Task: inverse folding
């Protein structure tokens, strides 16, 4: 997969009520616990604000858990296709690698499999003003603020997007192949491997699994950029380690090609976001002409798309980013920034610590204890020092 966001998300709604649900642990056996969870969460949410939104989240997750089966049991049975069997075996190997080589949590997550019968597990809605890349945020008990809303039904996401667009926001709806419940529901079987990403290439399967497990190592409420940049860095560094130690030459070559495209595309969009931010900062000054401001914005987007076409010409026909570029707006660019802006700082920190995963995780947790602006500044300084060679 080469999505510009490379999305793995956090289903914070489940964490927000999982503490309540975990009070039932030990009182009834699994899988009966699944039903208890569903009923308890529905009852709990009745008194919460935006109960219908929480309810669809919990209902969707419960349905997914009910549809999941232990991978070990599936492999022992003869009732699965050879293609699925091969992917489950690879997933098991990657799961062991994640814990044994990267120090990621060794728990119930990705030990089960579910086929949801659709292409994505949830659809996210993001929104931004006409002259800003700052995403709209929604705040909730326990988990703080996040810059997206996730829906298990695409139609519901599209309706919310339409409502936000009517309010003047630029919006984007994108499908998400996987999400993390941050380990809070591992006692219930954990986050399962899904058909929505099980058939990715081995390297991309590794990348997404490592990304989601990284959220179980570190998650800071109300700082999407820090959380997603950390998980993205862990995913990339972990996948490189897996390739170097466990993959064949063909897989390594394919990943190098994918990474080269990904890096050049991110560099292009990073520069474009910088230009937009500079323009939007000046556009906020009073006294500007609205028509000229709109024309300048249009010109910047047209230039970006021309630059993308020029870059794409060197990719030998690869067109995986075309749809995203065609739809690009403040919302999609703002969402992309969450997965990109602090990644270089995390990777520089990892290198500075000699590539030692335990030390890296401790250092990242120490950064998480700082105020939001201070942790971002520290990571930017790490990236700047690495870029200068100092």
Result:
């Amino acid at each position: 997969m080469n999505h510009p966001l490379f999305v793995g998300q956090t289903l914070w709604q489940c964490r927000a009520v999982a503490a309540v649900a975990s009070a039932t642990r030990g009182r009834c056996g699994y899988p009966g616990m699944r039903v208890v969870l569903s009923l308890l969460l529905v009852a709990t949410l009745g008194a919460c604000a935006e109960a219908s939104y929480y309810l669809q989240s919990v209902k969707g997750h419960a349905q997914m858990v009910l549809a999941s089966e232990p991978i070990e049991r599936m492999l022992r049975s003869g009732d699965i296709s050879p293609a699925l069997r091969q992917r489950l075996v690879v997933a098991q190997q990657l799961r062991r690698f994640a814990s044994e080589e990267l120090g990621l949590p060794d728990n119930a997550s990705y030990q089960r499999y579910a086929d949801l019968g659709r292409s994505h597990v949830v659809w996210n809605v993001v929104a931004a003003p006409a002259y800003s890349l700052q995403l709209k945020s929604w705040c909730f008990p326990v988990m703080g603020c996040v810059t997206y809303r996730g829906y298990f039904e695409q139609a519901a996401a599209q309706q919310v997007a339409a409502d936000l667009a009517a309010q003047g926001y630029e919006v984007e709806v994108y499908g998400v192949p996987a999400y993390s419940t941050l380990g809070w529901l591992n006692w219930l079987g954990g986050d399962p491997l899904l058909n929505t990403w099980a058939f990715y290439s081995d390297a991309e399967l590794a990348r997404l699994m490592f990304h989601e497990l990284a959220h179980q190592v570190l998650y800071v409420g109300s700082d999407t950029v820090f959380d997603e940049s950390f998980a993205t860095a862990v995913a990339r560094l972990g996948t490189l380690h897996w390739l170097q130690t466990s993959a064949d030459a063909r897989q390594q070559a394919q990943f190098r090609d994918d990474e080269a495209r990904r890096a050049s595309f991110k560099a292009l969009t990073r520069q474009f976001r910088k230009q937009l931010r500079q323009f939007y900062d000046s556009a906020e000054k009073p006294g500007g002409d609205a028509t000229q401001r709109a024309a300048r914005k249009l010109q910047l987007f047209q230039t970006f798309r021309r630059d993308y076409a020029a870059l794409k010409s060197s990719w030998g026909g690869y067109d995986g980013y075309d749809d995203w570029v065609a739809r690009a707006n403040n919302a999609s660019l703002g969402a992309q920034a969450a997965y990109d802006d602090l990644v270089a700082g995390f990777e520089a920190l990892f290198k500075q610590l000699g590539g030692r995963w335990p030390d890296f995780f401790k250092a990242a947790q120490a950064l998480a204890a700082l105020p939001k602006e201070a942790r971002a500044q520290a990571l930017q300084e790490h990236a700047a020092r690495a870029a200068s060679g100092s």
